[in-house]
Amino acid sequence: MRLLVVEDDPDLNRQLVGALEEAGYVVDSAKDGEEGHFLGDTEPYDAVVLDLGLPEMDGVTVLEKWRRDGKIMPVLILTARDRWSDKVAGFDAGADDYVAKPFFMEEVLARLRALLRRATGHATSELECGSVRVDTRSSRVTVDGRAIKLTSLEYRLLAYMMHHRDRVISRTELVEHLYDQDFDRDSNTIEVFVGRLRRKLGKDVIETVRGLGYRLTAPEDAV
Length: 223
Ligand code: CA
Description:
By secondary structure, the chain is an alpha/beta fold. It has helices spanning 10-22, 33-42, 59-68, 84-93, 105-119, 152-163, 171-178, 188-201, and strands at residues 2-6, 26-30, 47-51, 75-80, 97-101, 126-129, 132-135, 140-143, 146-148, 206-209, 213-216.
């Protein structure tokens, strides 16, 4: 899953990006509202962490513009502790959730997990597909209860596909959601990672849909 962090405080920006990357997400970041708005407008993010007090363009305006242009990704806003009116303005502009500063990173991570799973129609942090289970809290993956070790890119690929199970996902979409904006993207590498996941999880877990992409389905659900 690919996230965007828009936060002008350099320390907080770095802490957020670091914690999110450690949690297995790909992260782009912006330090002002204009750059943040541009990225959210042009890149497909699975969720956004948006500070409201930003230089160039304030967070509420950024959010309003995205929503007016039909951008529906979940947005978690960061607000000042004592400014209840900011929360109201943020929600009215299209925010999905908020965290007040100062916050514990664990809370941001938990709220993002909830937003990501709700946006893709899942009720819990533990995603299941046949014998494969992914615990998005711990990034733990098991097959028939047996722990499987994945590299970070393999994990990102599996987590994205688990969130979007039963849907055909194109290679382009996978590339867009697994790498950050600076990465030199080559959709052929996706095939390599799909191959590795099949070897680790079982070859029937990921189905190739010729000419269209890949689909993650539980074998018993396959038609
Ligand atoms: Ca700020």
